[in-house]
Amino acid sequence: MKKILMSVILSLMLTCGIATGCKAEQGQGKETYDRDAGLDPTASTAFFDDFTDREYSASLWSTGNSKWGPDFNHGVSPDNVLWNDSGIVTIKSLGKYYPDQEINYQGGTLVTKDTYGPGRYETRMKMMPRFGACTAFWTFMYGTAQDLDGNLKNNLNQEIDIELNVGGDFRNVWFTNWTTEDDKAHVEKETEFFNADGEWHLYTFEWHTNPMRIDYYIDDIHLATLESNVPYVAGVINIGNWFPQSWAGNADFEEDYMQIDYVRYTPYKGQPCTPYGGGGGGAEFPSVSTPLPQVANMIVNAGFENSYPAAGKTDYVWSFYQDASIKSGAGRTGKGMTANKDGIGFQRIPDILGGFEYRATAWVKLADADSVCKLQAYFLKNSEDYVGTPAAVEISSATTGYRDGEFFEVEFTFTAPEDARRVEITFETTNGSVSVDDVFMNLAKKYVKA
Ligand SMILES: [Ca+2]
User: Which option is the CATH number for 309-447: 3.30.420.10, 1.10.530.10, 2.60.40.420, 2.60.120.260?
Assistant: First the structure.
C-alpha cells in the first residue's frame, strides 16, 4: 500500500515537473493551491446531471446534429445518442466499416442548451475505445463578443478541449484552449493507464479568468496547466465523439461506444467572463430509455456477409493465404470462410491494449473428424513488427462441443504482451477442411456480468 502510494506521489511530482505553471502544486511547503477555493455550488448555473431524470437532462442538453471537419465524415447525429434510465448516456461511433456506408464515419454529441463560464467542468465517462474518432469533452463559442476590457472582438473561436484517441496510443491525451481559430495553447500528456481500458474515468478542467489559467485533470491527477489563450466568453458544453481528418487514427472498425455516467459544472466566484447567447440547435435529448448496448465486436465483417468496395482494396477486410476464401452458403448463416489444408484466413485488429486479456469466439465447422483448425493470435507493436509469442488453440474432434460436420462455438482467451498494439486473429486449416463464421472479440473483462 505504501509502495503504491509512493509511486503515485512520485509520478505526480514527475508530471508536475514537466507541466507548465504547476509550481503551486509542487509546493516545497511554500505555496499551497486549493482547488476548491472560490467554487460556488449553490449558484443558479451550477448543475450535476447523472442522467437518471430524463426531464432534467432534457432541460440541460440537446443532441448534436451537425458536421464539421473532413468531407468524408458524416458528422454527429442525434440517432447515435442513446439514454438508459439507469443513468447512462451511450454515444455510438460508426466507423469506416459500418455496414451502411451512407452513415459511416459518424458520431454523436450532447450539447448544452445554455452557455457556461469559468468553473470546474467534470465528466465521468468511458471513452470510445477505437482509433479513428476523437472522444472529447469541450466548451465552444464562435462569433463576436467583448473581451474583459470591453473591446469588441470578431471571429472568436473559444474552446477548452480534452481530446482522446490521439497520438496513436490510448494513454495520450490532448489539452487545448483556444481564443480564435488561430490562437491556442496546447499540450499532449500521458496517463499511466489506457483511457480505453473500459473503466470509468473522471475528466476535469478548471477554467479561471482571474488570473487566466486552466488546469486539466484525469482521475483527479493534475496533468497540465495552461495560462495563455484562455477563453473569456461563455460557451456551450459538448461531450461526444466525431471523426477528424487523421489525427485520431484510422477508423478500422464497424461500431463502438462511449458512455457518460455524469456531467457536473460548478462555477467560481469572482471569475469574470462575457455572457454569450444560448446554445440552441440540435435535437431533443432522447425521449425514451433504450437498453444498454451489447459489448461491441472488434472484428469487422464478423459474419463474412459484407463487402466494402468503396473502402479500399480489401473488400472483405479479411485476408487469405493459400486455399481459403469467403463462400456463399459456407457459413452458419449465409456466407462463411472455408479453408482447405494449409489455407489461412485472418484479420488484423489495429487497436488493442497491451497487457490486457481478450476473449474471442467463433463458430467453426470441421468437415470431418480428421479436420483440424489452428486458431491463433499474432501480436504486433506497430503496423510491421511482431512481438511476443502467438497464442494458439487447436480445434479438432477432441475439442469440447465438437459436432461432426456441424458448426459449434469455440472460445479463445489470450493476453496481449505489454508492448502489443495490434493483433491478428488467424484461422489456419492444418488438416482437412474447415469453415468459420460469426467471429467475435473484445476485452475479456467486458464479459464479466455484474
Ligand atoms: Ca455468415
Answer: 2.60.120.260
